[in-house]
Amino acid sequence: MFPFVCRGIMRAAIHTRRIRGTLPGRLLSSCDGVPAGLADADTIFALSSGHGRCGVAVVRVSGPASATALRCMAGLTRSSLPPPRKALLRCITDAKGKEVLDRGLVLWFPAPHSFTGEDSVEFHIHGGTAVITAVLQALGSVPGMRPAEAGEFTRRAFQAGKLGLTEVEGLGDLIHAETEAQRRQALRQMSGDLGRLYQNWSHKLKRCLAHVEAFIDFSEDELIEDGVLNQVDTSVCHLQAEMERHLKDERKGERLRSGVQVVIAGATNAGKSSLLNTLCQRPAAIVSPMAGTTRDIVETALDIGGFPVLLSDTAGLRDSPDVVEREGVRRARERVEQADLTLVVVDCAHLLTDAQQAVDVLQTHLMCVLSSQEQPETDRCLLVLNKSDLLPECERQKLDREMRRVSGLPPVCLISCHTNDGLQDFLTVLHSSVKTLCGDPLSGAPTLTQARHRAHLQQCVAALAQYKRHRDTDLALAAEGVRLALTSLGRITGRVAAEEILDIIFKDFCIGK
Ligand SMILES: Nc1nc2c(ncn2[C@@H]2O[C@H](COP(=O)(O)OP(=O)(O)OP(=O)(O)O)[C@@H](O)[C@H]2O)c(=O)[nH]1
Ligand SMILES: [K+]
Ligand SMILES: [Mg+2]
């Protein structure tokens, strides 16, 4: 319920203000509007399927000349346009209808029921280079047609209001998704979950703003109920708390989107490069008995149970007179500093003492590696005891037993990169750590997935603090805080169009999308 004295007065108030062009005008221009930019008069076309030879290629057309192109190239008269969204097998010709280029499917999507909201056509043709080139050339010869730029189809869909900006980003992420969990997160964002969350906050903020504005204008005439501002206070407090909770996500969504940074570190010759090679199942890094073999960072991308991991092998940590090796060690420490998860590799031959001494040795290794971090995070690392094959069986079992019992250490895994002994258990532990770092993309509230979202949301929270700061001293400034908060939210969903943001987002798409 809008807590005004009389609904009639409220309507009158909004009406007079509309004429004065203040409240609703401001709201509409900054937060409510359809995304800026009108549909382009050009008709665009592009190969939308992947490049290179393939079974079927899809060429997409969007814009006012789509029907003309379809008629010319599929031998159709005006009355015989195919039924909407139904595939029709046709001979596909050049634009003059003289030479047959291929035989394939054509689909007609009349506006507004298409991806872009414009008249659109798809040609499903054979995926040979010559066929594709000929069809694209024929389309280029139809008046009013030009090749699409990267992301232009999606940009048109956005401009037609078919997708919000977070959905557009979700679509981009879906195209780039390499693992199962990334696909799930992207699909959820594309379906609008995240956008709806922000829209919902926007609606609540708009109500707050309307109330504050009305209070500023009409409270002196005693047309507004007492308590209107108190309600705004409560809403702002709730929203701020909700946003802060949403921001306190330990970057899980962003991490899942870009990959978990897992760094292998430890003393020289512990078998770090061997571990990298074992995990990626190819000789990516040089392995040798010479201490100080690795200097450069060796990176490889892995799919660990559906989660994306960027695994880095680093130089063994030791003091060295060699300048090149010292640079390698510096880089290794830098990587550990940035790591989401560190695998501290230790040669288990160093642990052949009693259990307490083994724990002490492990603590030393751990501290040596994690000293690179500003605040050493033992919960962000795993201890990997390598070369278990070199231990006599009874020693191996004893060490394994002892390590399962010790407390105060990160999870310990005993493995052999030579025999792969213990590898499955290690992978299970690694998977569980990576999963914790990324969270479950489908459960709970949707998570933000980009630094861009975070930055705008932080601005939004700061703007709400401005409301609180000025609430009792200067209501106009307080209202400005709510308005700024709305603008920041609008930047995330694309309701407030900032061309430079749009350019960056759409350039991430490929041509044809
Ligand atoms: N027996 C045995 N030897 C191993 C195992 N893993 C690695 N090695 C050997 O240990 C030596 C060092 O291995 P690397 O993988 O090069 O060790 P690293 O930690 O990358 O060494 P640096 O790059 O020099 O710091 C090589 O001779 C490997 O063959 C293992 O599980 N068992
Ligand atoms: K080595
Ligand atoms: Mg190495």
TrEMBL record:
Key words, A-Z: GTP-binding, Hydrolase, Mitochondrion, Nucleotide-binding, Transit peptide, tRNA processing
Main location: mitochondrion
Pfam families referenced in this protein's UniProt entry, alphabetically: MMR_HSR1, MnmE_helical, TrmE_N
TrmE-type G domain location: 259-435
Annotated catalysed reactions: GTP + H2O = GDP + phosphate + H(+)
Cross-referenced PANTHER family: TRNA MODIFICATION GTPASE GTPBP3, TRNA MODIFICATION GTPASE GTPBP3, MITOCHONDRIAL
Descriptive protein name: 5-taurinomethyluridine-[tRNA] synthase subunit GTPB3, mitochondrial
